[in-house]
Each structure stands twice: as structure tokens, then as C-alpha cells.
Specification:
The structure holds two protein chains of two kinds. By secondary structure, chain A is an alpha+beta fold. Helices cover about 30% and strands about 20% of the residues of chain A. Chain A contains four helices and eight strands; from the N terminus they run E-E-E-E-H-H-E-H-E-E-E-H. In chain A, strand 2 and strand 3 form a beta hairpin. Chain A is globular and about 45 Å long. Chain B is α+β, with helices and mostly antiparallel strands. An eight-stranded mixed beta sheet of chain B has the order 3-1-2-4-10-9-8-7. Chain B has a five-stranded mixed β-barrel with strand order 11-12-18-15-14, surrounded by five helices. Chain B has eleven helices and 20 strands. The longest helix of chain B is centred in the C-terminal third of the chain and has 13 residues, at about 295-305. Chain B starts with 19 loop residues before the first helix and ends with a helix. The chains are: A alpha+beta, B alpha+beta. The interface of A and B includes residues 11, 17, 133, 134 and 144 of A.
Chain lengths: ~140, ~350
């Protein structure tokens, strides 16, 4: 199973933490721990299976721990509409895991959600206007030259 | 009086061709032309005001950036209003998308022309022709936060096309270096910036400034105005006498032109030494700083910038991430004694120098 990220979501990762901003809703998120790893893998086109493999290559995990954490986190991202299920396997192989000589202790994926910008969106929406032009009528008798 | 000879007559390429250039020319014929040059983030901008009313309403916020002549990459902005000039509103065509108490809200972009109408103003930029227009029905009816920080949309688009990022934040420092103060409205940006002036720090803005990351991180001032809630205003000794909107609604912020209260305090920009995320704590008198991650600073800077400056550039988040990666970031826990805020900031600037 592959996923596609929400095209309205801008994201940037710094020092293992990913900030995701949903331009459509005004909600933004902080993804930490292995959550940042999972997000970046999915954004790079990884399937659910390759995400699990990637986590197991990076972290010391108990049997099934990486798979359970991945499934739970992908479900959370889906609920937040930050990702959606794609068709088939997709590119599937990303990311190319760099062999890790010493795996680090597993850091469960964490998602923190912030909605304090939503009031700006609700109070101050901006609307795209198409080729029909500006959104209020011309004075009677004016032309559009 | 006519528009200065040699003025370009480029018309918009939008399908509705709003003829804003010809409307501006008529406004100038009726009320005269006031022309000023500015250097904004190192770029030349000429503003041509149709009449004194638009000039006196909007120009004071740029007074510290005035220059003798148009600099490189010159943008020309023509500004006019209908009330003083007697020239009708732009004959905007099309279908109303939505309207609220502030009027229609819209954004248009095609063939390098961008336009936005909101808060009863119209901003248009033709980036290829380096021409822009700003219209309001009446400068007297503009929102105070709009005339205190005018042309935000045009500057966002124009500066952005030249590698300069407008951000939601305040900035204070010295010619040797300073800090960017970020966070959503009400987080303490203005209090932090304005309280620093009494201690000799200089002011580059309290709400919107511009930043560049190359060759080194640098803040550029856009506006010399500041705004404060009435309750906070009373905590400053020198600011109440400098309020530019003494008659205002109960929930409307007071606008001050900072140089009126602190002469010589304005600065056009400085090297960036740190990013501060203020947080009102007020448990103790002193203000203290605590290092925070670059991601935490980005979370304080980016959403409030992106949601207030439309449309966000595709790489807006990456540009702001580059900024917070380049300098140390701190949480500034504001104490109850605003006179002691600058101590913490000066210490951080010295550490970052």
C-alpha cells in the first residue's frame, strides 16, 4: 500500500522534527520521534511495508513494534487528511535506507496538532478568482477594454 | 497636474483589464502627485501618491527608508483613493465570490499579474513591468493596522520575487546585530520590541519585517510603526503621547510611529543573531531566555506568516527553515517588569555576535 501526501500540506524537517502546515484548514502539526521518519518516508513514496523495513533498520524494535507503530501512525495521518491511500504500490522503494551501524532505541511516533491559526483562516479567507475576473460587477455601461 | 512624463502606460494583462493605470492618472490630474523614493530590503521602490491625503496616511510608515533616488530593481507603486481624488473605483468585472462586513474578498493571478482585494483595498502587482497599484475608497476608512503597515501584499509578492522573505515578526537590535521576535498575535512581539527601545536597542518593526539568508542572515525593516493594546500602552512612559490614532474603537490597537517617541531609534536592518519566541509568563519580574529547537521556532514563525501573507511561496517554509537553522533560537519568557526585558535581549545579541 502506498500513500500520497496532501498537496495542501507544506512540510519541513529540522533536527528530526517535522513541521506540517495544512494550508486548507489552518491546522499545523509537529511530528516527532519516528513520526518524522514515517512522514518523510511516505512523502518520498514509500509503501507501508518499506516504511516498516526502514524503521527496523534505524531503531531497536521488538517483533511487530515497528509495524504496529507504523499502522497506527499512518491511520492518524489519514484521519488528519494529511495522507491518502494511493493506487497500488506506487514508487514503493523510497527511502533507500542507509545502513545504520548502531540502531538507536525506538522512539514512538508522535503527532502534536495546533489549531490556533484556524481563526485567521475563518476570519480572513482568501478566494481564488478564475478567468471570469473580479468578484463584483462592473458599473453599468462600463466596458472591459 | 498630469502623471510625470515618461510614465509607463502598461495595462494589466488580466482578462478584466481594470484600467488602474488610467484611473491613477486621472486621480493625479485632480489632486496632484507626491513622489518619494525608498530603499526597502536593499531594493529601490518609488511610491507615487495621488494627493496629500494618501501620502499623509500611508507614507509615514516608510519614512525611515526614504532615499534620494530610485535604487536597483526599482518598483513603482502608484497609490490613490476615490474620496479625495473624485475618481471612481476600479471597474472590476466578474462575479461576486463572497462578501462579508469588509466587502468582497478575492485573489487573482495570471501572466505575472497578481491582485488582491480585501479590507476594502485593491493591491495589484505586474512583476514583469515592475509596476504596482494600490487603491482604497477612502484613506480615512482604512483599518488602522492596514495604514500602519501598508502595501503588505505588494511587498510580499515583489520582495519574494527578489529572494527577500516577508515574515510575521518584530525585530530589534543594533547595527552590529539583532533578533527576530516571532509568534502569533498576542504572544508579546510588540511589547518585547517596544520595551527594548528605552534600553538603547533600535527598532526594525513589531509585526512584519523582511529577512534574507544570504550571504548571512539579515533582518530588513519594512515599517516604523508599532501597535499596542490600550492596556499595554499604559505600561510605557513615552508611547502614549506618540499615538497616531488617539480616537479609536475600544478593541482597536493604538498605533505609534516609533521615532516620535524614541527619536533616532529606527534602523533599516541588521545581521540576525537569534530568533526569539516570546511567552508571557510574568511570574517573576525578570525576563529570561531558554534555548529552544529550530523546529519550535519554525512552528512559531511559519504558520502565522504563511496564513497572513497570501499566497505563500511554494518554498516559503523551506526559506524560513533555513533562517531558523542559521541562528540560535530561544524561548523568551517575559517577566512582569517590562523594563527588564531588554537585559535578556542584549545578552542574547552579545552571545550571538
Amino acid at each position: 500500500m502506498s500513500y500520497i501526501t496532501n498537496p495542501q500540506a507544506m512540510h519541513e524537517t529540522i533536527d528530526g522534527e517535522t513541521i506540517v502546515i495544512d494550508l486548507a484548514t489552518g491546522t499545523y502539526y509537529s511530528l516527532r520521534g519516528s513520526g518524522s521518519v514515517i512522514w518523510n518516508a511516505v512523502a518520498a513514496g514509500a509503501t507501508r511495508e518499506s516504511v516498516v523495513d526502514h524503521l527496523e533498520s534505524m531503531y531497536e524494535t521488538a517483533p511487530g513494534e515497528a509495524a504496529d507503530a507504523t499502522d497506527a501512525f499512518l491511520s492518524e495521518l489519514e484521519r488528519e487528511q494529511l495522507i491518502a491511500r494511493g493506487n497500488g504500490a506506487g514508487p514503493g522503494e523510497a527511502p533507500a535506507s542507509t545502513p545504520v551501524e548502531v540502531r538507536s532505541p525506538f522512539e514512538p511516533p508522535r503527532l502534536e496538532k495546533y489549531e490556533d491559526m484556524q481563526d485567521i483562516i475563518l476570519l480572513d479567507p482568501v478566494h481564488m478568482v478564475d478567468d471570469q475576473g473580479w468578484p463584483h460587477p462592473a458599473p453599468a455601461g462600463s466596458d472591459s477594454a | 497636474m498630469s502623471v510625470a512624463s515618461g510614465a509607463r502606460t502598461t495595462m494589466l494583462r488580466s482578462p478584466s483589464d481594470t484600467r488602474v493605470a488610467s484611473l491613477f492618472a486621472r486621480a493625479v490630474d485632480n489632486v496632484g502627485l507626491v513622489e518619494r523614493h525608498y530603499t526597502i530590503a536593499g531594493l529601490g521602490v518609488t511610491m507615487r501618491f495621488a494627493g496629500e491625503r494618501m501620502f499623509t496616511r500611508l507614507a509615514p510608515s516608510f519614512q525611515h527608508l526614504a532615499s534620494e533616488a530610485l535604487g536597483e530593481a526599482g518598483l513603482r507603486v502608484d497609490l490613490w483613493d476615490s474620496a479625495s481624488s473624485g475618481v471612481e473605483a476600479p471597474p472590476l468585472l466578474g462575479t461576486l465570490v463572497e462578501s462579508d462586513e469588509s466587502g468582497p474578498v478575492y485573489y487573482y493571478e495570471r501572466d505575472g499579474v497578481q491582485a488582491m482585494g480585501r479590507w476594502r483595498t485593491l493591491s495589484v502587482l505586474d512583476a514583469g513591468a515592475a509596476e504596482a497599484w494600490f487603491w482604497t475608497p477612502d484613506p480615512a476608512t482604512m483599518a488602522s493596522w492596514d495604514w500602519a503597515a501598508p502595501l503588505r501584499a505588494i511587498l510580499h509578492w515583489w520582495l519574494g520575487s527578489h529572494g527577500v522573505v516577508q515574515v510575521h515578526g518584530g525585530a530589534i537590535g543594533t547595527a552590529e546585530g539583532g533578533v527576530l521576535v516571532v509568534g502569533r498575535g498576542g504572544s508579546g512581539k510588540s511589547t518585547t520590541a517596544l520595551s527594548s527601545l528605552a534600553a538603547g536597542l533600535r527598532y526594525a518593526g513589531d509585526d512584519f519585517v523582511a529577512v534574507t539568508t544570504q550571504p548571512e542572515p539579515r533582518v530588513h525593516s519594512l515599517y516604523c510603526s508599532g501597535k499596542l493594546d490600550a492596556g499595554h500602552l499604559e505600561r510605557f512612559t513615552r508611547l502614549p503621547a506618540a499615538v497616531a490614532n488617539p480616537v479609536r474603537d475600544q478593541d482597536e490597537k493604538a498605533i505609534v510611529y516609533v521615532d516620535d517617541a524614541f527619536p533616532g531609534s529606527l534602523i533599516g536592518g541588521f545581521p540576525l543573531r537569534g530568533v526569539l519566541v516570546p511567552r508571557v509568563v510574568a511570574r517573576e519580574p525578570e525576563t529570561r531566555s531558554v534555548p529552544v529547537s529550530a523546529a519550535a521556532a519554525l512552528a512559531a514563525l511559519a504558520p502565522s506568516t504563511i496564513f497572513q501573507l497570501y499566497p505563500p511561496k511554494a518554498n516559503a517554509l523551506a526559506e524560513m527553515a533555513a533562517l531558523v537553522r542559521a541562528v540560535p533560537c530561544y524561548s523568551l519568557e517575559l517577566g512582569s517588569d517590562i523594563d527588564r526585558i531588554p537585559e535578556a535581549i542584549i545578552e542574547l545579541i552579545e552571545v550571538g555576535a
